Amino acid sequence: MANPKRNHEYFDLSGKVAVITGGSRGLGLSMAHAFAEAGARVIIASRKQEACDAAAAEVQAASGRECVGFAYHAGSWEDSDRLAAFAWERFGHVDVLVNNAGMSPLYESLTAVSETLYDKVLEVNLRGPFRLSSLLGERMAAGNGGSIINVSSIAAVQPTPTELPYGMAKAGLNAMTLGLARAYAPKVRVNCIMPGPFLTDIAKAWDMEAFNRRAETTIPLRRGGEPDEVVGAALYFASAASSYTTGAILKIDGGSAYPAA
After folding, report:
1. Fewest CB atoms within 10 A around its CB: which of 4, 86, 180, 181?
2. What is the per-residue pLDDT across 67-81, written as a single tens digit (0 to 9) for each?
3. Catalytic annotation on 236?
């Protein structure tokens, strides 16, 4: 039997390189801080270069680890190619990929969903993660291995009429997790975090009084999640702590969703 690690060594990311899409705010930014504090160098990829640079500077100042920003549209096949090439040219390897970027636009009714809206939701939430995971996963598998972490949603298993295309895309992301876990085994682990309602920037548009009333009866923990409450799961999946875990989908939702049948 191999020598056991000390507890802190299981979560050590020293020498690792992590790419986080949608990393300039919310859950992505919390994960960027956590990975950098654990020793990783980080690429924050999101739509606007200015926001990426600001977030990267914040993470680097707090951790002392190198962190760079990269303008990236998660729905663009070409941008996935550019991001993968940039990461490899900059650092020579990637050990952790977090597919966190996502979007769920509002619409008045299902018949009001335009072809453009539908395509955009599927592109950002599913097509982009597929392309980026394929590019980086193949290189990880050919090299020293790594970890891919997809960020889904409980909408994948309990979609509401107001977020149906989004839920469909996230259900696809769950399926992709299982398929990639087999495609790139045994050197690459692929897992999925499935969050419920988190109080990130998007919550600023919520009616919080109404949300809190609903939480009392629909969420066993009776509240929304805080961004840093995703950190433990992210570090687990990114690090050696999850060395025998792949193809897993972990709910982090305060207990609000039932598992898929």
Report:
1. 4
2. 999 999 999 999 999
3. no
